[in-house]
Amino acid sequence: xxxxxxxxxxxxxxxxxxxxxGFVRLYNGQEAVSTGFxxxxxxxxxxxxxxxxxxxxxxxxxxxxxxLSELLDKATSCCRGQGGSMHxxxxxxxxxxxxxxxxxxxxxxxxxxxxxxxKREVLKEADCDHVTLAFFGDGTCxxxxxxxCLNMAALWKFPFVFVVENNLWAILFLRFIRKDQLSxxxxxxxxxxxx
Amino acid sequence: xLGIVRQKMLGQSLLKIRPAISxxxxxxxxxxxxxxxxxxxxxxxxxxxxxxxxxxxxxEVGEYQGAYKISKGLLEKYxxxxxxxxxxxxxxxxxxxxxxxxxxxxPVVEFMTFNFSMQAIDHIINSAAKSNYMSAGQMSVPIVxxxxxxxxxxxxxxxxxxxxxxxxxxxGLKVLSxxxxxxxxxxxxxxxxxxxxVVFLENELLYGESFPVSDEVLDSSFCLPIGKAKIERKxxxxxxxxxxxxxxxxxxxxxxxxxxxxxxxxxxxxxxxxLDRSTINAxxxxxxxxxxxxxxxxxxxxxAEICASVVEESFAYLDAPVERIAGADVPMPYAAxxxxxxxxxxxxxxxxxxxxxxxxxxxxxxx
Lengths: 195, 367
Fold this sequence. Notes:
Helix content of chain A is about 40%, strand content about 10%.
């Protein structure tokens, strides 16, 4: 968690020094969520995120040097400078990325969970109990793909966890929880229980 | 007089034999007739049988035996874990396919038509096509997206678009479009075995068409190379390139042109990306004239890319301007007579070939 915060602060500093440019999304304040979840995962479990993926990558075990090198366009980084801040991939650490379109990572993660079930039931690898997590924000809950995958994951019973990080922002729109919006808030929470 | 009648009869019977000569030639190996539907079904069946990691996913592929019966019998044979009937959620299940492909499974994702692939195009382009590059080679995506593409019959504007040029412009994808049963079998097998994402564009109106197939094609290890076009008909006066249903039209046009003394070479592209530029250019260097034929919209189409390639590599060999024949620049109309005008017909190809050979009134005068 502390490493995550220090890393993101350093990214902000590099950005203001113009060493880093383009799209960089920081995870300050949300470190506890992904760190807590990922700490409980095994090596073979996998995760998929949105573009706010630095700290998840760190928690998965990708060296901080490899990620920062990626953000600073070094060929020695985890993706040779070809992915960038939003697309951190690591086969070794089962980090499935890093997707620009919010909600895009959810079906990918669902597919990884599908593979876990397929390996157990069709390929008869009895010890395969890999779990997949998808991290995304409250803004993503507006996206159709979220609901499509909720439906299919429940239908086919995939080993999959949807982690909604409610940071109250949807891109640049801040959602205040006011009294007159309370009903909207309850609907969202009820839907959370429903699933 | 009897001699002349005998000559005429002989001439006529020779003309009758000629189109069927491919059947006669392979008669000794007992050429079978196979529809494109059977070809696709058998290719899927054999690949699923050979590799347990191959699975099929899409709407109606299981219990309904496939919207166009391409996956007939597969649910019964392989079970619901490998032939999955999905809800109507193209974006969702295309993404699930990509996620499964990240982990080494080999999904074959069926779109009921490629018009519906637009619901999932983010996953086809951003997750499937670009992942190998973005991850610096760590994530390989051995997925096949297949389904009917282009115009059918009276299905209207939202069900009739050809997506060949859209997908073929994207690096990271391979785009294939079969014409005959041999193409369908060989290319689908190659696509399933390929470690990269492949967009496989079939044609609804070709599913029921029968083509002769040799024993070699029927063998379960038969495979066609991706990126190689086929010269369906050798000629020396004009090159006509086409893919999918238009190959049949181009061959019919070539027969009509032959009677008028124009010997057309017809190239079946088979692979839209990677495009077989060397075969096309070699042909143009021989014939010096080029017509490209496609069903899709003209602007930024497959023909535009072929014309550019020929101008870049074989400009000095051209004796006439290159011409592209494409669908009309209009959303596909519903009425049958309008639809016929919106899709290239055999007469259009014949007229264009004659223009390229300076045998008819030039385009400017006709306009």
